[in-house]
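step: validate -> pass
step: tokenize input -> pass
step: predict -> running
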Amino acid sequence: MRSPLVPYVTAWSSERAARPHVITRGAGIGYADESPFDRDSDGVLWAREGVSPGRGKPEFGRVHLLRQRRAMRRLLCQICARAADRNADGVLWLIGEDDAEDMTTTHPPVCVPCAAQAVRACPYLRGGHVLVRARTCVPLGVHGVVYEPGFPFPRVHRDGGVTYDDPRIRWTRAAQLIVQLEGCTTVNRNASAPEPDQAP
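step: predict -> pass
step: emit ->
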């Protein structure tokens, strides 16, 4: 049974990323042994990673790509995987200070009881965070490894975020979904997350 102190999106040591052979495919990249499950509904190529939560040790600095994407798409709490907190102002999100500038994030939403745990468990959020409610969230792009043409195989160019309307998306092996938060109300900035009985 998974410890409640381990966030749902955290990767475990038993969940190793696969290293499939990346090739040039059309006007972008693909896998030599690619299957339909390797791409999402937008046609973006995703990295492969094992799924065995609870086995081995949690690696708090590493996010599991499938669980991150599931939590984003279904608006699940990144800690407990239950429905994220929602009220008339929208869904509750705990984002880094840098993300607050343009309200884009790779961090799934949270529920109120788990908000404080998220700050403690995530080094990125401990460096500064903003608690907001967003009326909507729109998938904006992905964060991953961006390749460039090469011979005989594509070469890694950089790691980073790429929007869906960027031509480089066809050369990207995604690892996390990026969403744009819209209709935002700031609940708390650079302060401790609320206690369970102090729902914002």
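step: describe -> The CA atoms of residues 17 and 49 lie 4 Å apart.
step: cleanup -> pass
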